[in-house]
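User: Sequence for ATP-dependent RNA helicase below. Tokens please.
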Amino acid sequence: MATPMYARYIPPKAKNTRGKASVSLPVPEISQAKEQPGKTKQQSKDQPKKRKRETKDPLKEKEDDVTIPSVLKASEVEEVPAKKEHRSKDRPKKRKREREEKSHDSEDNGTKLKKHKSVLSKFEKVSKIAGAARESAVDIPAEEIKESPTELHGLTPLPQPEPVPEPEYHPTFSALPPWLAKPTTVSSSAKVPFADLGLDARLVEQLEKKGYKEALAVQSAVIPMLLPGLHQHFGDICVSAATGSGKTLAYILPMIEGLQGRVLSKLSGLIVVPTRELVTQARVVAEQITVGTKIKVGTAVGNISFPAEQELLVKKDKRFDPEAARLLHDKANEQLRTGFVERGGIMGDLMHMPPGHVPHYESSVDILICTPGRLVEHIQSTTGFSLSDIRWLVVDEADRLLDDSFQEWVDVLMKALEVESTSEQALARRKIISRNPWLKPERQLTKVVLSATMTKDLSKLGSLKFRRPKMVIVENEDQNIHSCAPGTDMTGDGESFELPPALKEWAIPVGTGLDKPLYLLKLLQTNILSQWEMEKTDTPTVADVDTESSASSSSSSDSDNSDSDSASSVSDSSEDSSSEDESDDSGVDTKKKLSNPKHRSKITPKNQADISSRVLVFTNNNENAARLSHLLAILHPPLKNKLGTLTKSAATKSSQKTLAAFATGKIRILIASDRASRGLDVPDLGHIVNYDLPRSVTDYVHRVGRTARAGKEGQSWTFFTKTEGRWFWNDIARASAIRRAQKVDRAIVDAETLNEEKRTTYEAALRELRVAVEGSTGRAVGR
Ligand SMILES: Nc1ncnc2c1ncn2[C@@H]1O[C@H](COP(=O)(O)OP(=O)(O)OP(=O)(O)O)[C@@H](O)[C@H]1O
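Assistant: Structure tokens for ATP-dependent RNA helicase:
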């Protein structure tokens, strides 16, 4: 009796009693039994077993699945427990009836029908109970009850609901402090005449002589904040402004204005920059502005010996002060007694002093421009080098410098700045201030921190210990600014950078990258250098090329200006050749064929001296720069005297020579490592080539920022290989962190059209280079 009732017996039209619910039920086996009276008891006993076996068949199972719902109506499911209860109560009666039936059966000659009658009577009872239950339930018209159509499914997964999109998270708070979260923004078009900035007339005149008629946006915003007046900010300033926007004058002018009346030299302004080239560059700007004043500008970069640099920075003298002399001598005696004798320094100098005198040190410079490494050396080892009178501290290229933990320069500098001045005037003033606390403190140190890619990392900025800081951001408010993430501005929590508005960026696919030198040669030929520049020197033979000294030789040699008419060795058939797009990026911007004559420089005697047709080529390391320089010189010998290299390993003097030659146009192609990517200002530089892809977004921003400076036009060309394409387009060309006025366009260089002779020369050059490098270092050379 374990089989449920509905499984054992299902009546033919179960519930159509009141013309309401009409449910078609499976044909009941009992009726079959009725119709087949010849079936034996054994057969009917076997029936459940047979069904059990049948249910093992999956197809059968499916059939059951389909039929069962029509049987299992809610009212009937509820009937089962009701029936059970009833049965347990009526058990004695039932047995009695069964006995009666049995006796009747025996009377009826033991036919099977009697047994079925008992089952039928049970069913009638159940039906009565179900009928009563149904009467108490709400009547539903039969036509409203529809059988749900059977859905058949194959093996394909059932359709799933659309995933609910995650709601966009717009924090109503910022993790940054208010001065960083809500910076002061300045439009890059907000220019003001220098005379309106509160600068001294002499300074304005000096600037006009240089051809600067009005202050650029960053200067118009920052100078008034640093000078006494209505807009003065009593605290420190962080500045974020695009490359070439004029940040150098924005900090140098107020510093010079503030120190003009100075009679005695005191080290009052300290400018820290990352490279020696930038020290030299900032010094040139400062010296141009200080002409006619007593302000002395010094540098510390390590291009001369350390003792020589010490002498240049600090003047040593003697001062009659018996009391101070006695104290110092006591200290010296104590050191002798304990054995801990200080070598050099003030104790060393004391030995050479006449009785009653002490050594006296004075700064030889008012403004010091230096690299962080050399600064730390002077703080730690130069006697009399004191930062206690510093009023201006400038950290240019701040994000780069704060990344640099070299010699823990920030900590050393901050400690040195905390040391109070021990000069007599300072001591006297401190005495007065202690009695009159409302008086201004003796020294007010203002920190100015600048970059085109300013960090918002508090852990880095915090190391500079700002006092009431303010962030100033200069941004282009042009509606056409292309920012891949709509609404990206420079004031959010994330870091975002702006490119110069007049910069045109191009991206050039270079296949696997194996023939990059040939691509570069073709690009120089078609779009950067004029034909005159490509061909003007006598063509030397491959053997003539001095690989090691191409940079220095080119900087010193003044190329012969004969207007050579010799036929170009570079094929110019690119116009009709169809270029194949081998890059893997998708949906890329307009493709431009660079061999189109309208992109070419016109060959006229006039533009022979056009220095904007110079190019700065960036490689990823010194080795690549030297190798490329060598290959180009062999590939196209007329370029030999127009090539220079600028790498970290080059001596300061040689780098300065190379840079000067590049600035004056003697060198047309400067191949450099990332050393040249920060801050370098080469006036009217027209082109940048990223021969190797930069390693980061910030590197890209600084590299391309060497052109299109101070509102002038410039172009950048970035080579990308098949494997680099995705990164370049996603992280640089369409990066939400970069705001640009013009989108990056794709350009095709037909390096294939370079003639066979060039390819043969290229192969020969590679072999020669391999032999040269393997010979000297035992290493293999790639291209
Ligand atoms: N007021 C001005 N008018 C015209 N030109 C200017 C003015 N001020 C500066 N310049 C020129 O702008 C160029 C860029 O200046 P500067 O080197 O200070 O830029 P920068 O913002 O420091 O760039 P980077 O971030 O790359 O270091 C220089 O060649 C400079 O001579």
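Residues 112-136 form the longest helix (25 residues).
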